[in-house]
Structures are given as C-alpha cells and as structure tokens.
Design goal:
This protein is mostly helical. 45% of the residues lie in helices and 8% in strands. The protein has helices at 15-30, 42-70, 94-103, 110-120, 139-148, 163-173, 180-186, 225-239, 246-250, 255-268, 274-286, 294-301, 307-311, 334-341, 369-376, and strands at 83-88, 129-134, 153-156, 216-219, 350-355, 361-366. A two-stranded antiparallel ribbon has the order 1-2. It has a two-stranded antiparallel ribbon with strand order 3-4. The longest helix has 29 residues, at 42-70. Residues 1-37 and 61-74 have low confidence and may be disordered.
C-alpha cells in the first residue's frame, strides 16, 4: 500500500488529528525504505569494472609504447638464434646505436643499452662497422662485441678435426691474421691455461688437442690466437658442464682419459652407434685387451692405415700399445663425449663397419673373435 508522506491537517489539529499524524510519522520512520529502492542489475557492476580494466590497459599500453618509441624501442625481441645485421656509422653515439639495436629487436630499448654502456664506461670504445648479432644475446655480450669491433672472419671447426688441421683452417679463414704457426703455438701447452680451466689439470704440458671445442667462431680485426684458443676452451667448459664422469671414474678413467676415449669414438663411429662403439672400447679395456683402433694409427701415419703402419711400434698405435693414446687424437664433439661418459651396456668386444651396396655405412658388432671373423669374412 502506498504511503502518503504529507498528511493534511489544520493549523491547530485536534487530539485525534495529532494522534493520527504522529502515528503516521512513526510508521514512516519505521518503514523499510529499501523496499521501495529500484533493484540493481549485478551485471552493471561487472560491466563497469571490465570497462575500467580495459581503459587502464589501453592507457598503460599507450604509455609503454610511447616510452618505448622515445627510447628507441617499439620492436619485439628476436628469438634466440635469429640473426640481425646492425651497421654502426663512424662517430655514431651510444644513443643512436641503441636505437638501431632496439629497432632490430636485439635490445628492449635504447636506454637499456646506454645504461649498460655507461655502467661499463664503454661509450668511447664502441667501434663502427657492420655487425651480425643474434637474438638472445645479453646486453653485456652486445656491448662487448661492439667494443671488440665487427666480425672480420668466421670459421667452423668440425668434430673430429686435429690441431694441425684446425690451425690451417684458422689461417685460411682469417687470411693470415692468425697464422697456423701462431695458433699451434698458442695451443701448444695446456699448463698455460690450467689455472683458468681446471679441466686441463691432467693434460700437463701436452697440447690442447681434444679441448679445442668444435664450433663456429668469429674473428674481429683484433682477435689473437690466444683469444681464439680461450674462446674454444670457454666453449668446451660450457658444452661439457652437464656431463657426469661417474661411470668413467668408476672404471678408472680421468676427465683427460674421457677426452682421449671420446676422440677415438668420434673417429670410429657415426651418430647412431657412438654409445655402442664406446661399450666395445670399455669392454676391451676391462679385459686388458688392446683397443686396436685404426683411427689411432691414422693419426700418426697421416693416412688410412696400411698393414705396415699397423705393425709399426708407435705410442699412438693401439695395436701395439696397451690402453689409451698419450693424448687425444682429435677434438671430439659433444655426442662423442656423452658416449664416453654413458656407453651402452653390451658384451661386445669387436666391431667393424663398411658401406653397403647403396653406400650407407653398416656396423657389425660381435662378442667373440670367432663371431667377428665370421661376420667380417
């Protein structure tokens, strides 16, 4: 029932009128006023909050974009491994370089780059030139590259290469900036680097054969032979950080021994058979058998072994000498090193490989010499 808020009565109401009015006043005061309020739709509040969130997000995005543009950003970062070319002009400052880097997607903003440059005091050391940089590089690495100067040459050291062959490749790639003699000399004594690279402790004064990790390396106009050697040792350290020596050590092998064995595995196997070939050599070592690896003979002979080479007494001839070679015979890749650390479990003591009619290399493994002879023949 509707309630009349304004009652009509005379200026001097009688008792009955005053009583009625007072009753109405009490009724009005005690009346639940919420009952006559319009009902609120709960969706209205949801829509309002959503609209507010959208407005805040749009404003934030516009501010972020504006700041990015002012700082030389605005581009999404390159994925790791993707490359971008950046040209640094003569006399170009850190702010302009940072803007180019940001536009190429190599840094988040020019300011982030200039902050690192200023922190390192490198503003006056950034060198002009053309740079090929990879996504995922840290700001420190980018600044370091710009301080070193643009890449003058690049060389890819393949798995299984010898120190001598690597030296020749370096000389050719750098057009004599680093000669084969310079590189060989820089890698001639492992003890020179042992303080910085503890994994060289057992290598003594031997060469760095085996530790010059196969990878692609860049050269700047100022790169020296020692710089390159250290880069290769840094790569070895990084690549092998996750390897476990537990199995090898349980069989009496040191890290240096693992590298020696991995070098032989690298030369004697392919991608599909490394762990199986590794098991053969471990089984032969356990039995006190000679490794009898043609690869070790080829190392000192310089060519595919002949019967005369196999019969030659030589420290690297595993047909005539027990155990592993005195030093690694090449630079093994990571997969060969993994196989030397985690060989397959087999009873094989013999193997050989030969191409089939299609030219595909086939591997044959045997537990006994009689089986080996039957398979080989």
């Amino acid at each position: 029932m509707a309630f009349r808020k304004n009652a009509t009565y005379s200026q001097r109401p009688n008792h009955a009128a005053r009583a009625a009015h007072a009753k109405g006043e009490r009724l009005f005061r005690n009346y639940d006023t919420t009952a006559i309020q319009p009902k609120r739709n709960p969706l209205h509040a949801v829509f309002a909050i959503a609209a507010l969130v959208v407005v805040v997000a749009v404003v934030g995005y516009l501010v972020f974009t504006l700041v990015g543009l002012l700082n030389g950003g605005g581009s999404s970062l390159l994925a790791e491994g993707q490359e971008a070319t950046v040209v640094v002009a003569e006399g170009e400052g850190a702010q302009a370089i940072g803007k180019s880097l940001a536009e190429a997607g190599l840094v988040g903003s020019a300011k982030a780059f200039t902050d690192v440059v200023n922190d390192r005091g490198a503003a006056a050391s950034l060198k002009p030139g053309t740079y090929v940089l990879e996504g995922g590089m840290s700001l420190d690495d980018i600044v370091k590259r710009l301080v070193e100067g643009p890449v003058a040459a690049r060389v890819t050291i393949p798995e299984g290469i010898t120190l001598k062959a690597a030296a020749a490749m370096v000389e050719e790639a750098t057009k004599g900036q680093i000669t084969a003699a310079d590189f060989t000399s820089a890698a001639s004594d492992a003890s020179v680097y042992a303080a910085d690279y503890p994994f060289l402790a057992d290598a003594g004064t031997n060469t760095l054969e085996g530790f010059l990790f196969p990878k692609t390396y860049d050269f700047t106009p100022t790169t020296t032979a020692t710089d390159l050697v250290r880069a290769m040792l840094d790569q070895f350290k990084a690549e092998t950080a996750g390897l476990s020596l537990a199995y090898a050590q349980s069989r009496g092998l040191s890290l240096y021994d693992v590298v020696k064995l991995a070098a032989i595995i690298e030369k004697e196997s392919d991608d599909a058979h490394r762990a199986t070939v590794a098991s053969v050599f471990y089984n032969r070592l356990a039995e006190g058998m000679r490794l009898q690896s043609d690869a070790t003979v080829a190392y000192f002979a310089g060519h595919d072994p002949t019967p005369a080479d196999v019969a030659t007494a030589h420290p690297y001839n595993t047909y005539t000498v027990d155990g592993l070679t005195p030093t690694p015979i090449c630079s093994p890749g990571l997969e060969a090193l993994k196989a030397a650390c985690e060989p397959e479990t087999t009873k094989y003591k013999y193997f050989y490989f030969a191409p089939d009619a299609s030219g595909t290399m086939q591997y044959f493994f045997s537990e006994t010499f009689e089986e080996h002879e039957a398979t080989y023949s």
